[in-house]
Amino acid sequence: MLEIALPQDKVVFIQDGILFAVEKDIKTLVKDEVELYALKDDFIARGFDESESLVPLLTYDEFAEIVEKEPKIIS
User: Fold this and answer.
1) Phi/psi at 70 (nearest 5 deg)?
2) What is this structure's pTM?
3) Residue 49 pLDDT more than 90?
4) Of 20, 39, 19, 42, which Cα lies nearest the Cα of 29?
């Protein structure tokens, strides 16, 4: 799915997908201008410290705002 994301897309890593948030080559897997995020609570629940994330971390409220604003959601 990362390979087909378009420049205007936002990708939010949740559950075990947050492992991508610590993947050093994550930016090479997506096109420029694709916005990458990870759900903060899921990130911390898997034993990571916030400082280890290579993408911005979102609260549930921030995640909900993205879902409300985007015309299409792929899960």
Assistant:
1) -80, 135
2) 0.89
3) yes
4) 20
